[in-house]
Amino acid sequence: MPEISRFLGIIIAMYYNEHNPPHFHARYGDAQVEISIETLSVLAGKLPPRVITVKVASATHESPFSRAREKGRG
After folding, report:
1. Residue 9 has what DSSP assignment?
2. How far is CA 10 from the centre of its chain?
């Protein structure tokens, strides 16, 4: 899975042609979650609440997920 970013031990990855809705994967240690790009809601999995807060906050200030998804379409 292509890695999009790495921050404070949180690894963000995304497949370009994966199933809908558009989402990214976040891993922190052994925990894993899928988060919707459009709504930033958790679709599957579980991460510690502090990690979810950090990742969602950073996703609202930067958009590498949207850029990566668009790049994969091109």
Report:
1. T
2. 10
* Residue that is written with structure tokens 């991460």 in the block: 47
- Residue 34: left (phi > 0), alpha (psi -120 to 50), or beta? beta
Burial class (CB in 10 A: 0-12, 13-18, 19+), 12: buried
The structure tokens 């790009």 sit at 37
What dihedral do alpha carbons 11, 16, 19, 22 form, nearest 10°? 70
pLDDT tens digits, one per residue of 26-48: 899 999 999 888 888 889 999 88
- As for how many domains the chain has, the answer is 1
The range of the structural domain enclosing residue 20 comes to: 3-73
